[in-house]
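Closing statement on the flavin-adenine dinucleotide sub-project.
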Amino acid sequence: MNKIIKKEQFSEKVFKFVVEAPLIAKSRKAGHFVIVRVGDKGERMPLTIADSDTVNGTITLVVQKVGYSSTKLCNLNEGDYITDVVGPLGQATHIENFGTVVCAGGGVGVAPMLPIIKALKQAGNKVISVLAGRTKELIILEDEVRKHSDEVIIMTDDGSYGQKGVVTVGIEQVIQREKVDKCFAIGPAIMMKFCCLLTKKYNVSTDVSLNTIMVDGTGMCGACRITVGGKTRFVCVDGPEFDGHEVDFDEMFKRMGAFKPIEIEEMKKLENHVESVLVDSEIKIDPVKAADAEQMTTDTPLEQLLDRKADWRVELQKSMKPKERTSIERCKMGELDPVYRATTRLEEVNIGLTKEQALTEAKLHQEH
Amino acid sequence: MLKATSALPAVCGRVCPQEKQCESVCIHVKMNEPAVAIGNLERFAADFERASGKMTLPEVAPDNGIKVAIVGSGPAGLSCAGDMAKLGYEVTVFEALHEIGGVLKYGIPEFRLPNAIVDVEINNLRKMGVNFIKDCIIGKTITIKDLEEQGYKAIFVASGAGLPNFMNIPGENSINIMSSNEYLTRVNLMDASNPDADTPINFAKSVMVVGGGNTAMDSCRTAKRLGAEHVFIAYRRSEAEMPARLEEVKHAKEEGIEFLTLHNPIEYIADEKGAVCQVKLQKMELGEPDASGRRSPVPIPGAIETRDIDMAIVAVGVSPNPLVPKSVEGLELGRKNTIAVNDNMQSSIPTIFAGGDIVRGGATVILAMGDGRRAAAHMHEMLSK
Ligand SMILES: Cc1cc2nc3c(=O)[nH]c(=O)nc-3n(C[C@H](O)[C@H](O)[C@H](O)COP(=O)(O)OP(=O)(O)OC[C@H]3O[C@@H](n4cnc5c(N)ncnc54)[C@H](O)[C@@H]3O)c2cc1C
Ligand code: FES
């Protein structure tokens, strides 16, 4: 359980959360992400760490309402708790002094870009940031980005702020004007694809941060796999950043749509969302077994139980001739009917031995 | 008696391959008769105790004030935690996921091992004083070095074999082809088939499961339960070589799963949306025995069959989770990123022990539990010096 210390609205659909997570705040680096889960039946959702504060032990997340789970998170308020926050996950961004770097952030992609901009600046690079969005309201974190960049270019599709045009126009201006040594692009998959097509033309190496579907985020399931340079890689452990010129974006688009129709279904749930009741895994006591157990003792010392010559064992062994004993057939455990059971995922197939079966079978055991 | 010698009898009685273990050395087998149903008896005893309400906790020695850490809460971690708690240590178990139990929770389905059974065992450990911290990845959230600085005197790494293998054949990254880990995690851990849960899962009509182990059996039986009309297993060897428990194979067949043995997928074909719609299978025959002693399958030239499917689940094994091994400097590694240990389950760094699938690669619950107990014994020996 992690407490939300601060919530701020950036635009209609984008929110900033400052969340208590002291251990993660301490060990995270630029490029790392966390997995969060909201509610007991919540999905595991990856979010990049936009910032951290080691003194107060908090991390900053910037979230856009896109599907069911992100909307559920955005509906939480200051003082509420996020059910699970785990991380930091993934590989940290490879930072060095490249020279002149263009950092292109589209939409909420500016949030994961911010720590990279900071780290690049700190490493001595000349940082030119290109922020892009459909309209003025969708340009986020501008002040923070300005603080750590040598120059900021703003692009909006409708020209309501900065220059009118798409993100690649801004990048191209810089490349045509001066020598660019490295480019970072983070945003919607389609935006990253076109940034890479452009920078490939000018031969500027470009790193992208991929936001594929994930489940665990620890390399356990392969849901996040994509093809990079002809090889299958797991975004959660090998990434999330890769050489953009090697990524098979077309495959990635398709994979990201894998659960779309279902997600729309889920969205409907939000409208009439009822918090599910917590059911504890309680033990049900069976009165017959409880009565049987009353008759039994559990304080016999272990040595006596293990002693092959103990009185109780000898007595048991004598009660039946070996021949008689070996003629007992191996018992068969009861099972649910195959046709019925193939329709129920939660009912156990094997139903266990009855007391009588167990006692008979145990006699067979006596000669060991 | 079981309590003193086994850490999780209710679990073992359900999922261990008894026919290959205790029951295979049973004296009755030597007399050419069926073995005593030891597994069933084990389960009976544990279930009886639970349902009787007279559950007893093992005796716990007085607190000795020594802190030990356990990484991973699968069967290896849980059994080591239990033994160390009994000996009076202050035990903390760190788990990366949001649930305790490892494969017992995220992998093995409820129709074979109900979660409630695992929870009871975990609650017993809690009552014995074991502390569980979930959502904490050792090597990421905190390091082994941090643990040492916090005063943990010994560490048992039981982080399992989390990394799913794929076959690296064309089309394998199409939509609706997933690892058994993903499929089972979505369904078991995230409860995706329940309409109230947020995690999505796609439902399919015709499902192929690749592989012949327990994971393959669990996947195909789960697919059937989620409503698939036709589910088949594609396995490149013959049924005799299948590593799954005998009972699982029998149950799967009874439930209507088709067994397509001596068939190996070589290519997937996707529709225009990128979702798998067909698979090409290479027919095989058995050749000479290989290193594992099993007759190795060889392709029959030209014998290729194409089948329509709308989902494929790849269950061709797992590799050790590299997170911990990679994060500790100077830790000696074995084959395929496993952690190398001596007979005492001790790694090249004396205070770090390891066991279960992280040492063996994908193995079994009972071996993992055995490792946990052996590690506890030797850890105790080391710390008592
Ligand atoms: C579907 C399926 C069915 C199976 N059926 C059977 C069966 O019937 N019988 C049988 O004997 N065996 C079976 N097995 C194999 C058996 O489950 C494993 O051999 C056993 O669980 C291994 O135990 P473990 O404790 O080593 O690891 P795991 O159970 O894998 O537990 C490891 C735990 O460590 C956590 N972890 C990993 N890295 C870190 C980290 N850095 N920090 C903190 N935590 C971490 C993981 O999240 C996980 O919870 C099956 C396996 C699967 C997948
Ligand atoms: S999210 Fe499961 S392996 Fe990456």
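Residues 267-316 of chain A form one domain. With this model delivered, the sub-project is considered complete and its resources will be redirected to Aim 3.
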